[in-house]
């Protein structure tokens, strides 16, 4: 009984594992397909984050080309996008310190 029981248990375990693998995708797998919403300060950062994250990230750059970082004011749609971001990558520009508290108040769950 010992050897047959072990073989039956192994066969049953492998069958359950293969059936589970063929089932519908789990919530975590579906979440993995949804791009991570990321906000960065400047366009060159956006370039690097997109190259690293590929289709796994959707990147919002706060300061667009032609905008002076010293007089920058986020647009309402940028704040809305930032409120939906899961992460904010800092690079050390003055805007980050000036707007840190406001951006954090818009989205307290965002990783910085």
For this entry, give a set of tags:
112 residues, alpha/beta, three-stranded parallel beta sheet, 5 helices
Gap from first CA to last CA: 59 Å
The overall strand count is: 3
% residues in beta strands: 15-25%
Low-confidence segments, ≥5 residues, pLDDT <50?
none
| Overall geometry | globular
DSSP helical segment count: 5
Structural class: alpha/beta
Largest sheet: 3 strands, parallel
The helicity comes to 40-55%
* Rounded mean pLDDT score: 78
Q: Using only CA atoms, what is the Rg?
A: 23 Å
Taken in chain order, the helices and strands follow as HHEHEHEH
Write out the strand line-up for the largest beta sheet, numbering strands in chain order: 2-1-3
């Amino acid at each position: 009984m010992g050897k047959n029981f072990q073989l039956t248990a192994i066969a049953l375990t492998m069958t359950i594992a293969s059936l589970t693998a063929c089932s519908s995708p789990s919530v975590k797998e579906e979440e993995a397909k949804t791009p991570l919403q990321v906000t960065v300060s400047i366009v060159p950062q956006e370039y690097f984050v997109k190259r690293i994250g590929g289709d796994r990230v959707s990147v919002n750059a706060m300061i667009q080309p032609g905008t002076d970082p010293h007089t920058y004011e986020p647009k309402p749609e940028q704040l809305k996008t930032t409120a939906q971001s899961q992460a904010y990558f800092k690079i050390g520009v003055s805007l980050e310190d000036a707007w840190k508290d406001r951006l954090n108040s818009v989205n307290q769950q965002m990783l910085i």
